[in-house]
Amino acid sequence: MSVAGEATPERAPRVGVLALQGGFEAHRRMLERLGADVRDVRVPEHLAGLGGLVVPGGESTTMMLGIEREGLAGPLRAFAAERPVFGTCAGLIVLDREHVGIMDVRAERNAFGRQTHSFEEDLDLDLGVGRDGGPVRAVFIRAPWIAEHGPGVEILASVAGHGVAAREGHALVVSFHPELSGETRLHERFLRDVRAAGGD
Ligand code: GLN
Q1: 179 tagged catalytic
Q2: Which residues line ligand 1 (CB under 6 A)?
Q3: What top-level class would CATH report for the domain 14-196?
Q4: What letter does residue 176 receive in the DSSP assignment?
Q5: Is there a catalytic annotation at residue 177?
Q6: For a pocket test of ligand 1, which of 61, 86, 93, 179 has the largest count of ligand atoms closer than 8 A to its C-beta?
């Protein structure tokens, strides 16, 4: 849909945030701050007309129950074949090959153990985001890591030898919470990918 007379090439992309459970409000705020038109996604019909989708952190088991209840797994896979998807923390687990199956990774839940269940670290992220403007401040909360991945997956950053950020095609996942640390560059990257994919 285009608005007559709107000349700006950087017009607001319309993106969704999976809003079944978890930290979707913080993602919404960050995306709106970056100029996006943000919609909550709770049922398959809500994916129509979106240029990209964020899958937030939270509790992956609960989120998967909601995805199954609403019949969202197939529609999410079809959407991700065409459009950028960005998963954070539990979102990484939801998108992995053992759950919705959008990324060819296997996430290990709560991988950093009980003692270090929450921590912060500066990451040098090679995503066109971390090297401009310094390292990415990453907040980890009972975070997963990437235990295995297929050949099409590019690991973008690791902690203790385990992948915590990865990309495959236009899907992007991180183990941490950029939406909580005021780190906008990953969301900016996602919105750039949405525009590049011709997203609405
Ligand atoms: N530990 C959570 C899970 O396994 C993920 C934590 C988070 O998203 N902050 O679902």
Answers
A1: yes
A2: 57-60, 89-90, 93, 109-110, 141-142
A3: alpha beta
A4: S
A5: yes
A6: 93
Q: How many CB atoms lie within 10 A of CB 196?
A: 10
Residue 76 to residue 68: CA distance in whole angstroms:
11
Helix%, strand%, coil% for the chain, nearest 5: 30, 30, 45
The residue nearest atom 1 of ligand 1, judged by CA position, is 142
Q: Nearest to residue 16, comparing CAs of 66, 198, 43, 182?
A: 43
Question: Counting atoms of ligand 1 from 1, which one is nearest the CA of 110?
Answer: 1
Query: Using CA atoms, how far apart are residues 99 and 42, in angstroms rounded to an integer?
Result: 17
89, 149, 168, 187: which is the annotated catalytic residue?
A: 89
Q: In this model, does residue 8 exceed pLDDT 70?
A: no
Q: In the prediction, which pLDDT does 132 show?
A: 65
Dump pLDDT digits (tens) for 14-48.
Answer: 999 999 999 999 999 999 999 999 999 999 999 99
68 a catalytic residue: no
**Do residues 154 and 2 lie in contact, with contact meaning Cβ atoms separated by under 8 Å?**
no
Three-state secondary structure call for residue 118: strand
Q: How far apart are CA 172 and CA 84, in angstroms?
A: 8
CA distance 74 to 63: 15
SS3 category, 82 = helix
Point out the ligand 1 atom lying closest to the alpha carbon of residue 63: 10
The DSSP H or E segment spanning 33 is helix 24-33
Tell me the pLDDT tens digit for each residue of 144-181: 999 999 999 999 999 999 999 999 999 999 999 999 98
